[in-house]
Records
---
Amino acid sequence: MSVKPASFDYYRPDTVDEALQLLDEAEDEGKILAGGQSLVPIMNMRLATPQCIIDVNGLNGLDTIRYESGLMKIGALSRQRCLEQNNLVKEKVPLIAEAAPFIGHTQTRNRGTIGGSLVHADPSAEIPLSLLVLDAQAVIRSCDEERTVPVSDFFVTYLTTDIMPNEMLTEIQIPTEGIPQGYAFVEFSRRHGDFALVDAACLIDTDEQRRITSVRLALGGVDAIPVLSEDATELLVGEKLSSRLLEEVGRAVQAEVDPDEDLHASREYRRHLAGVFAKRAVRLAYQRAIQGGGTG
Amino acid sequence: MKLKKKEQTTICLTVNGRRYVESVEPRKLLSDFLREDCGLTGTHVGCEHGVCGACTILLNGSAVRSCLLFAVQVDGAEIRTVEGLDTEGHLNPLQEAFSEHHALQCGFCTPGILLSASELLEYNPHPTTEEIEEMLSGHLCRCTGYKGIVKAIEKVANRNPKFTHES
């Protein structure tokens, strides 16, 4: 069986403004091509037949990674391989550097981008989960306006985001002032590089008595979009982590999530994994927090 | 650049050190371009949706899936395929090691793995077994002969620290 994409108009703009103009003119039929590691497979399988492809790979300035006034600013076209190797990312948002190697394989991370993964919005994908737990903002542009959306409001449902057909994600901003020192990203997949069945990301700060002062725990693969656990925050803030408390967090998360079942895992199995991986993420982030944010 | 459906454009690129000037329509996959337009059938086409790794090539030195790129995107690029690994008909040390360690059975997955391994050794001349396996996770071998492949790459990594895919 051969697997080839349907025909499409191909545009390669020279500037972001031109890309936005083309997107606007294409109305609902335009699609931005970045790394192509999710879009091209679905085009090859004819699950998507966009009439107009706007290739942004040649655009200058869309792949810069910089730190400015308390914000990590990561251009939407930054390659995933770059996220795992970039020193600024490792220093300011080590959670992302830890999550990146779980995305596909080196051969796909060489092309795949941070922005492409965020807008594709797979429910178990590493980038959306990491950016949710980091309380990141998505900078979105159209011909007429630029707006900033918190990642916590960005996901609508499976593979669907707040982004409109005439809009393009240009940058991701992560506030790093007061970012918790303890971090962890863990996941379970059937084989290395497969889609995660469940993944979990956690950020924790502690005081000098090793009591948790702030915590954010998020899970992927357990709902249509990545979710923040409110119960974990309620249980953990103000407490020292004990094995009894950790078990309680695991049970609370299992009760909190409502996963769907598919060919890869039953509802019960995903729920079980959610508890196990929530505990692993909390434990690792806590260990790092009490060690002063070291690499643990 | 603006191309309508089925409208041909001329692209110019370097494959294995040789310059190609060819005409393509936007939907032509790079994997098909290499096989059909350049006649380089060493690049194998397996799943055509980025999973199996058989079509992996080096694009400006990076190992990527050629079935997930359109030929029109690589205008001006430098590409290396399995045909560009030898030197005047002599296998390079990595290819020799593959032969020596029985790292290929049916050979379908081999070209892609050779290119990924070349990239790995270029940036990391002494990879650990774990790093080799991590790279290899991006390739499916349905004969399941992974052990020989790991051994072959380990041999090159230890024997010739300055190994590079440049011939």
---
Amino acid sequence: MQDLLYFSQQLINGLTIGSTYALIAIGYTMVYGIIGMINFAHGEIYMIGAYTALIAITGLATLGIAWLPLVLIVALICAMIVSSSMGWAVERVAYRPVRGRHRLIPLISAIGMSIFLQNYVHLAQGSRNVGFPALIDGSFRFGTGEGFQLSISYMQITIFITTLVCMTILSLFISRSRIGRACRAVSQDLGMANLLGIDTNRIISATFVIGAALAAVAGLLLGMYYGSVDPLFGFIAGLKAFTAAVLGGIGSIPGAMLGGLILGVAESMTSGYLSGEYKDVVSFSLLILILLFKPTGLLGKPEVEKI
Amino acid sequence: MKMSVKKLATAVGASVALMAAGQAAAEIRIGIAGPMTGPVAQYGDMQFSGARMAIERINAAGGVMGEQLVGVEVDDVCDPKQAVTVANRLVNQGVQYVVGHLCSSSTQPASDIYEDEGILMITPASTSPEITQRGYELVFRTIGLDSMQGPVAGEYIVSQNPNKVAVIHDKQQYGEGIATAVRDTLRNAGVEVAMFEGITAGDKDFSSLVTKIKQANVDFVYYGGYHPELGLILRQARQADVNAKFMGPEGVGNKDINTIAGEAAEGLLVTLPPSFDEKEENQDLVAAFADKGEDPSGPFVLTSYTAVQLVADGIEQAGTKDPFEVAKALRSGTFETPIGTVQYNQAGDMESFEFVVYEWHSDGSKTPVN
């Protein structure tokens, strides 16, 4: 019983962190699916989302507004607007001018953008940690007496449910809406979609905007969960999310979700049953193994040779 | 032509050295090397203030073996290249003793020059263990090493009679070094170390680690590393109802941990160097600083004072001004100083440098634990 509780606790820890990887991974996977480039500045967009949400929450608090649902919705909307405009601007400034050149050029441009945004926030907000108020506090507890108690915090539940809801909405949007259909067309063949009258520039911008908006959701949730933000907030998270996207099959949206969850659970099980030192060793070995047997990732489609 | 210029330079150099040697007969020159300008100049001010005060007070009390001390102050800007330049300048001025440098990165290259030239050096501020690990004969310090806090923390934990202890670190030189020292101290005292584990610096999610700590049922957790990670661990541990006591080194003892951990920082234990200016036996000295309008509370003021005093005491005990003899006297003697009783080991480190256990509070203040 004790062991089962411990296992469940580690599983919940893994699923929580995995769903946040998945939310961030969407941004990587959508951009890759459509224009075949890796947007390394995406982790920074997520960090900016967290900062914006914090600024909004602090602003509302000075105005004396403390009704939780209102605070959360306003913070979320502010974060999504700022992050989305940032995602759009990054694409216009750093990626569109170099689109269609050699593969390396957009890649270097993306790394440069990431460094620029990180240092910009360093300058504008200072390099120290800033406290983030814990708006959703408390937890469910299972198991009684002296033994190990399983605890699931409301925040963990919120993160998991929000991720599921966002993923469902996004999948519906991609499969049912007009823009979604255009997105799929562009990802299949950019040149042909253009010939058929789809404004590909607009679709590519939309991809960046959607990815950035989801990153902003993750920024708000994780800012509250961890209780503080700093300018390096997005670096490791971005790296892990990128790994999750590759694991699940880059370009595939359900793949990003699956990859995130697998990575999160693998990490928490390794540090739970082996040692925290082997956490990254195990998750990256897993990545290599999967790519050896399935080079396109778990749910990735094999690249069709275009003639 | 080139040759003659070189010869001339050598001749001038030699005569300057001779002149300096002539002066040294009447007085004892001590080089004081630290940053007067640059980004860490405020620490340099502490160093110069302490050293000047020591020189004044020793001279007022009759000097050393009847001779007066004279400070030769140089600015190394805390820059390793500049440190080498000023070290050479001190060599040319016939200085036989140096109090400095401040930054470990400056002390290291400068000490190579002093050791080669037979100059005794005491650094009042450099804590990098490497400085005294090179088998040098003339290098000393009046400050603790990064690695000295571990045993202090370990002994404190032992004194609390915990059942099981977890030792966590961030896999970096500073954190893992201290954590290893804590673990060894605990094991030698027969305390069970249930976990010894590294985390990744920069990580945000420690829920798996916290769950493991909870499962291991430890009542004490030691963390070797800096505040960003410990702050998050504290916070996540509090959320998961972990009731263990947490402890960390100097690197976690600053106000940023309150920003990150919030309420969870209350009751955290931290090892820090004591406030020497609050010691009762130093009140006379503190008053002397106050008379000059200077503040002795900075971490390097009284360590610099002590460094100058040790040079003077060393010369007295050796009965000669030969730096090698003075170094031997420092290694064999016991000295009463404002920072406590100083005894040196073979490497040139103090046998013990006091670290005090403080309890941290959620408003960023701290109180000593007895």
